[in-house]
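ok, trying the design again with the full structure, not the truncated one.
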């Protein structure tokens, strides 16, 4: 998937700051979004917090409540906080909270 996004950028010309993010929703996040995945084209210096803000803007209060308790993977690696910087092309998985220990 990420390669498809990178190919799209290669064919679309130069890109300044920002990120093209493929978001995959699981469980409650999928229900709140109404779609299994979506693409975000974000401007500026982009971190995970910018993705969260855009998802809340697009999908409203229900999504905001879900996002308060989920975990995120950025390109398959667990994000350590909402200030996690994102590369220009990446994937973000929105995962349900995990129990156990």
């Amino acid at each position: 998937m990420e390669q498809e996004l990178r190919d799209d950028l290669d064919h679309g010309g130069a890109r300044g700051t920002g990120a093209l993010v493929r978001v995959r929703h699981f469980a409650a996040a999928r229900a709140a979004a109404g779609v299994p995945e979506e693409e975000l084209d974000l401007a500026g210096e982009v971190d995970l917090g910018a993705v969260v803000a855009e998802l809340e803007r697009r999908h409203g209060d229900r999504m905001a409540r879900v996002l308060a308790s989920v975990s995120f993977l950025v390109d398959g690696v667990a994000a350590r906080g909402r200030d996690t910087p994102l590369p220009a092309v990446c994937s973000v998985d929105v995962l349900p909270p995990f129990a156990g220990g």
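Keeping the full-length input from now on. The first helix runs from residue 2 to 12.
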